[in-house]
Amino acid sequence: MIARVFPHKTKASPVDKLAFFGPPPMFLPEISEVHVSVTFTWDIKYAEWLAGQWEPVAPVKMGGPAFNEAGADFVPGKYLKSGYVITSRGCPNKCWFCSVWKREPSLRELPIRNGWNVLDDNLLACSDQHIESVFTMLKSQKSRIQFTGGLEAARLKDWHVERLTWLKPKQMFFAYDTPNDYEPLVVASKILKAAGFTRSHMRCYVLIGYPRDTFELAESRLRQCVELGFYPAAMLWRNLDYFVDVKWQRFQRLWMSPAIISQRLGTAVYCGSENTATNKCSPKPVELASGLHRTLIYNI
User: Fold this and answer.
1) Is 170 exposed, middle or buried (0-12, 13-18, 19+ CB in 10 A)?
2) Is residue 198 situated within a structural domain?
């Protein structure tokens, strides 16, 4: 049997008896091989230490996105919790901050496995036939659908939105990483809201803290998302030394949780179980008093 070892436990981590987080426990089932799976480059040193701890148990292999290795066909439940699914790998965009296109030089459509939370690098860059097949698979799932891997707003088409209304997803993530992403988000916002989607379904990853970024500029982008009807999720950039400024970390926390965001903006925009018929969700945030606002944001 193969033990899979992970540096940290997350919502997406497997939960079976052969998934481990940290050094080997005292009592183990019979294990023939150990796979140390590493997602983030800043975890490599710790993962190497873990590999050394597991070597007396069985032969150890290390791998994962952190090593810029191209992924194989997706096996449900092996390195991700059951329900999470990857149907394609790679992305045709070559964003300066992203390593996907470096480890996956071309977009590859994979055999479609069952799952309800899609983690593809760029699902909407796939062929129409593949996307249609993925949507058909998702329709058969019992859990509510999520697109936490993200959907590229610039590639969103009317027929995609029709299928999304058919699927009734719990949440869909888009991205605002560069200035060029804004106008496609504006268009996506209009067609999604026209189809009946609300802020409780529409999320948006927003890259912050990269070179020359400022708190003011980052907050402006995050507020733009709120104005468009998306709940932003701030994603903090890390340099090659993996250094993270504590002030940026604190700022990020203010813009990660829909509940915190709605509380800070002074309006009931968090409507995870909203009654759209009574229109209880306010479409526009109410600005806080400037003095209080600056205290919340910059005294960190």
Assistant:
1) middle
2) no
6 lies in some domain: yes
* Token reading at 61: 């292999």
Q: How far apart are CA 13 and CA 149, in angstroms?
A: 15
Tell which wins on pLDDT, 215 or 245. Answer: 215
Q: pLDDT tens digits, residue range 145-187?
A: 999 999 999 999 999 999 999 999 999 999 999 999 999 999 9
Q: What is the model's pLDDT at position 41? A: 86
Other CB atoms within 10 Å distance of the CB of residue 122:
22
The residue range of the domain holding 40 is 2-65
In degrees, rounded to 5, the angle at the alpha carbon of residue 12 between the alpha carbons of residues 9 and 18 is 65
pLDDT band at residue 50 under the 50/70/90 scheme = very high
Per-residue pLDDT of 218-258, as tens digits, reads 999 999 999 999 999 999 998 767 777 899 999 999 998 88
Q: How many CB atoms lie within 10 A of CB 184?
A: 17
- C-alpha span between 296 and 253 (Å, rounded): 11
Per the structure, the count of domains in the chain is 1
For residues 99 and 175, what is the distance between their CA atoms, to the nearest angstrom? 16
Q: Round to whole Å and give the CA distance between 48 and 298.
A: 38
Which of helix, strand or coil describes residue 67? helix
Give a yes or no: residue 280 inside a domain: no
Q: What is the pLDDT of residue 266?
A: 65
Say if 42 falls within a structural domain.
yes
Q: Would you say 85 and 61 are in contact if contact means Cβ atoms under 8 Å apart?
A: no
The residues facing 5 across adjacent strands are 20, 36
